[in-house]
Specification:
By secondary structure, the chain is α/β, with parallel strands linked by helices. It has 13 helices and ten strands. The chain has an eight-stranded mixed sheet with strand order 1-2-3-4-5-6-7-8. Strands 9-10 form a two-stranded parallel ribbon.
Length: 377
């Protein structure tokens, strides 16, 4: 028996749907850091995000509907589950968002949705509010739209033309794993092909190039290996030019009982595993590590005890020590304790004089960690 909200008002629907949207992380925010997100006075979730400039701002994020036809076993909103179902219409979304936006409580809107009817029918529910904001109100706010797996090219093209960011959730590294989680999705046709099309649009036309693409993996639900996730992640950056890949640890208590054994085999420290994948992702994006630089154990998993950069350093003692006054940026980025900002500071400091100790560029726990990997003469 499916629970139904009796004639809920807009704010009650927003409370339900914005809470349900927390399971989709394909934007620049997380869902488990309760201190990092706040409830609005109406009960909706407002998420902090990091801007390209390095500053912070808030994003209103909600589902359009949580009434889903799909059977994804990891998702608490799957069709077989008894949850409170409701939907927001376009006018409700626009009114609520503009109210927040005009009060400068948020800088943008993230719209996602359960699959209601066909993929294209759901896409229209997602696109319509963005269309109204852009065309009727000339609103220049940041907009992130979810692209539903299996959506047609016309719907995808319009979403890309209206949004600053779009995302198709890949969920798993390959068809064999998707079959374990869902009977309603085709990995290549419904997921990969839309991602390729978005990449083609944003690469080949000035009209669409401002729009970027992100995605999300569900970690631990299908028995996949970290090595497989990292391989796909590297390929998504290199071949499809994605802006970000996100990782969401599977929450066993929210999924189907069929996945209980799979979740158990994923390990008890699933959140640490998610954290290690984010660290590996950061090495690929910011530290210029290659996929082959990421080291796994015999089971294809990242170490839970050490971060992947430290694992690489331990496996390559011949690389050290690094000459801090002469090393290239790529070499300095391999040093544990040195991040991109610190490395840039080192390179700038070298232009004005020799670095004789780490105190010349700053003091901190991470810099002390780096000291044993460096020489100054």
């Amino acid at each position: 028996m499916i629970g139904v909200v009796k004639t809920p008002d807009t704010m009650e629907k927003l409370r339900i749907l914005s809470a349900d949207s927390q399971y989709d992380l394909a934007c620049a925010c997380g869902s488990r850091d309760i201190k990092g997100r706040t409830r609005s006075q109406h009960g909706g979730w407002i998420y902090p995000v990091t801007l390209p400039s390095g500053g912070r701002d808030n994003l209103l994020k909600t589902l359009v509907s949580n009434s889903c036809r799909n059977d994804c076993k990891y998702c608490p909103l799957r069709a077989q589950n008894d949850v409170q179902r409701c939907s927001l219409n376009s006018d409700e979304i626009v009114k609520v968002f503009l109210d927040y936006f005009n009060r400068r409580e948020v800088f943008g809107l993230f719209l996602t949705s359960a699959v209601v009817g066909s993929a294209d029918e759901t896409m229209e529910k997602l696109i319509a509010p963005a269309r109204i904001l852009r065309k009727k109100y000339k609103c220049k706010a940041y907009i992130h739209l979810k692209v539903i797996p299996g959506a047609g090219k016309a719907a995808i093209k319009e979403a890309v033309s209206l949004a600053d960011t779009v995302s198709v959730n890949i969920e798993v590294p390959g068809e064999e794993y998707l079959k374990k989680l869902s009977t309603g999705k085709d990995f290549l046709n419904d997921v990969i092909e839309p991602m390729k099309y978005i990449s083609q649009l944003t690469a080949g036309d000035d009209k669409y190039e401002r729009c970027c693409q992100t995605t999300q993996f569900i970690v631990g639900a299908a028995g996949e290996k970290d090595a497989e996730i990292v391989k796909y992640t590297a390929a998504l950056y290199q071949r499809l030019r994605l802006s970000r890949v996100y990782f969401s640890a599977y929450q066993a208590q929210l999924g189907s009982g069929d996945l209980s054994q799979t979740a158990k085999s994923a390990g008890n420290d699933i959140l640490t595993r998610e954290h290690r994948l984010y660290q590996a992702d950061f090495l690929l994006r910011k530290y210029k590590f290659s996929e082959s630089d990421i080291i796994f154990d015999f089971d294809g998993q990242l170490s839970l005890q050490k971060d992947p950069k430290q694992v690489w350093a331990d496996a390559h003692p011949e690389f050290f020590p690094v000459r801090i006054n002469f090393a290239a940026r790529s070499e300095l980025l391999k040093v544990p304790g040195l991040g991109p900002t610190t490395v840039d500071n080192i390179i700038n400091r070298r232009k004005t004089g020799r670095i004789n100790w780490l105190g010349d560029i700053g003091i901190g726990k991470r810099l002390l960690k780096a000291d044993k990997y460096l020489v100054y003469n």
